[in-house]
Design goal:
Rossmann fold, 30% strand, two-stranded antiparallel sheet, single chain, globular, alpha/beta
Length: 200
């Protein structure tokens, strides 16, 4: 998988190492184990998916460019896979999931990896996690119609937020905070499930 990611243009060796250290097969349903190393999203139940490896690597590479991730918030923990990769690279990771059974599945998947810098939280990710903000990095694993204001407000000075933006047409959008100014940069076209508010 790492060699394929390199061939697809991922250049950050630390990201490639982190992807290589996390066994993706641990995070997919047993019946889909044969597809764990394919570069494709896979269903994880509750109308959610585990992102394709290239998109996980690409998003983290964009966020890391020229800096460390630092204290990181992941919105949409899903099955826990991306959180496990982030935990290889960030000083602290807070992963938020709004669907309780998925959060329980993520906890189960992650337990054997014993990642001391990763915390999972059952909460509405659109609201961020104000009690432990600010964050150096925020990564969103679902597509928003617009950038949630709470997430922008919870960015530390110099912080970066990356999320898929759009409905029919989605793009990765990077938001960088400089004081009270926010700079936006657009990247690859992507396809994510929609970002929803509330918990279930």
């Amino acid at each position: 998988m790492v060699d394929r990611l390199r061939d697809q243009g991922i250049r950050d060796e630390k990201v490639l190492e982190a992807m290589g250290r996390v066994p993706r097969e641990r995070f997919v349903d047993e019946g889909l184990g044969y597809s764990a190393f394919d570069d494709t999203p896979l269903p994880i139940g509750y109308q959610q998916t585990i992102s394709q490896p290239f998109v996980v690597a690409r998003m983290i590479e964009i966020l890391r460019a020229g800096r460390e991730l630092g204290k990181t918030l992941e919105v949409g923990a899903g099955c826990g896979y991306q959180a496990a990769v982030l935990a290889q690279l960030a000083s602290e990771v807070y992963a938020v999931e709004r669907i309780r059974p998925l959060l329980e599945k993520a906890k189960e998947n992650l337990r054997p990896l014993r990642l001391p810098n990763l915390r999972l939280k059952y909460a509405d990710g659109m609201l961020g996690l104000a009690e432990v903000a600010p964050f150096d990095t925020i990564i969103v694993a679902a597509a928003a119609r617009e950038v949630p204001v709470e997430l922008k407000q919870q960015l530390a000075p110099g912080g970066r937020l990356l999320l898929p933006l759009g409905v029919a047409e989605q793009r990765l959008v990077l938001i960088e905070r400089n004081g009270n100014l926010f700079k936006e940069s657009r990247y690859d076209g992507v396809r994510f499930v929609p970002l929803l508010g509330g918990v279930e």
